[in-house]
Amino acid sequence: MSSSVWTELATRRMRRRRARLRTMMVLLEQADRPPVYAQMNREVPLLQMYFDPQQDLRPDYRLSRTSVTALLQLLSRGKARGWAQHLEVLITLYWLAHGLSYSVVSRAFQVPKTTVHRVVHQLCGSLVAIRGQHIRYPAEEDVPAVALGFTELSGSPAFTNCVGALDGCHIRIKTPPGPHGQDYINRKLFASVQMQALCDSYGRFINLFVGYPGSVHDTRVLKNSSLYTAARYPPPGYFIIGDGGYPCIRAPITLLTPYREPLQGRVQERYNRHHARARSVIERAFGMMKTRWRCLFFKALEVHHTFVPDVVTVCAVLHNICLTAGDVVDPDDDRPDAVEVPPPRPVRNEQGGQGVRDRLAAQISAPVGQPEGLQDHDYL
Fold first, then answer.
1. Can you list the alpha helix ranges (DSSP code H) found in the chain?
2. Rounded CA gap, 236 and 253, in Å?
3. Beta bridge partners of 240
4. Does pTM top 0.90 for this prediction?
5. Residue 205 neighbours by CB under 8 Å, 6+ apart
6. What pLDDT is recorded for position 373?
7. Contacts of 243 by beta carbon, 8 Å cutoff, 6+ apart
8. pLDDT tens figures, 201-246
9. Which residues of the chain register pLDDT less than 70?
C-alpha cells in the first residue's frame, strides 16, 4: 500500500477522533446545565394571574405571594431542572390545593400529564429532603417562650411547663391492592394513613411521624415514633399534652392526657377544661392544613400509598413556611373523617404519669397560688 493511502487513512482516523471528542464535550456541557423541555406559556390563565402582581394567589394556590416567594427562594438553593422553577412550584401547589388528578392539572397548565407527575414527585422529594430545616424542636433558648404560649392558651399558670401538643390524623387514601390492603382500613371503615404531629404553642409542627396504616392504634404509632424512642423532647422538667387516645406517662417522655369519663369531682373537670384549651392549638393546626390543602382531607389521595408520607410531609413543611411568613388561614369548622379515639393501650417500660397529672390538677384547683410545698417542676 502506498504512502499516500496510509496518509489518507491516518487523516480519516484523526478526523473521527476529533469528531468523537467534540461530541463528548457537547454532552458534558449539556450535563452541567438543565435540559429545556418547553417554554412557559404565559397565556395560561393560572399563569397570567401569577405574573400579575395585583392578583391574589390564595384562591387558586392557597398561599400568599409572600409565602410563594419564600418557597422559591428556598428551592433556588438547590439544583434547577428543565421546567422553569416558577412553573414547577405552581403546578405542585395547585395539585396540593385542590386534590386533582394529574390529568386535570395538565389541562389547567397546558403541559403533558407525564410532566405534571414528574414535577410533583421531584418537588416533593426536594422539600422532604429539607424537612429538618423547618420541622424541628425549638432551640433551648426558645423553650420558655413556647411554654409561656401554652400557659396563655390554657388559661392556667399550672401549664407553665407545657411545651407541646400531640395529636393524630387520618389521611384518606384509596385501598391499596394486595393482601395487606385491609390493614389500612380504620375504625371509620375507610382506608387511611396515619399522621402523628407535635406542635408548639404557635401551631408550628416540631415533630412529624407519617406512614402507619389506619388500623394501627395511636399508642403503637407513638411507641414507634422518634418522639418516643429517642426521647429528645420535651426537655427535663417539661411535659407535652395529648388526647385520650394516648397513655398518660412520665417516661421515657412526659405525656399528660385528660381524665377519662366519668370524672371524679370538680378538680378533674377543671383540669380537663384547661387541658383542652391548651390542646386546641394542634386541632387548629390540623384545621389550617385541611383548609389549605384539600387533597389531604376532602378526598382520597390519588397516589400510590407509598408516596402518601411524602405528600403529607410536604404539606406540613409548607404549613410551617406559611406561618413563618405570616400567611395564616382560618380553619374550617367541619373536619371530615374524624376517627373515634380508642382507649389507650399500655406500653412496655413506661412509667405512669397519673401521679403527675393528679398533682397538676391539684395545682389548677388551688385557691391561691400553688398548694403548700408544691413548686415548679415538683409535680414532674
1. 3-32, 45-51, 58-61, 65-75, 85-98, 102-109, 113-129, 143-154, 218-224, 226-229, 266-292, 294-297, 308-324, 354-365
2. 9
3. 255
4. no
5. 135, 197, 198, 199, 285, 316, 319, 320
6. 36
7. 167, 257, 258, 279, 341
8. 999 999 999 999 999 999 999 999 999 999 999 999 999 999 999 9
9. 1-6, 25-40, 77-83, 333-351, 368-380
Contacts of 189 (CB under 8 A, 6+ apart): none
| AA identity, residue 330 | D
Helix, strand, or coil here: 59? helix
**Grid coordinates given for 261:** 369519663
Q: What CA–CA distance (Å, rounded) separates 179 from 188?
A: 20
Amino acid in position 60: D
Q: Which three cell numbers stand for residue 231?
A: 426521647
Other Cβ atoms closer than 10 A to 354: 14
Q: How far apart are the first and last CA of the chain?
A: 99
Contact status, residue 46 vs residue 108, Cβ threshold 8 Å: yes
Q: Tell me the C-alpha distance between 276 and 269, whole Å.
A: 11
C-alpha grid cell for residue 379?
409535680
Question: Could you tell me whether strands 249-251 and 351-352 are parallel, antiparallel, or unpaired per DSSP bridges?
Answer: antiparallel
C-alpha cell at 18: 476529533
DSSP line for 235-289 = PTT-EEEE-TTS--EEESS-EE-PPPSSP-SHHHHHHHHHHHHHHHHHHHHHHHH
Predicted confidence (pLDDT) per residue in 153-194, tens digit? 999 999 999 999 999 999 999 999 888 889 999 999 999 999
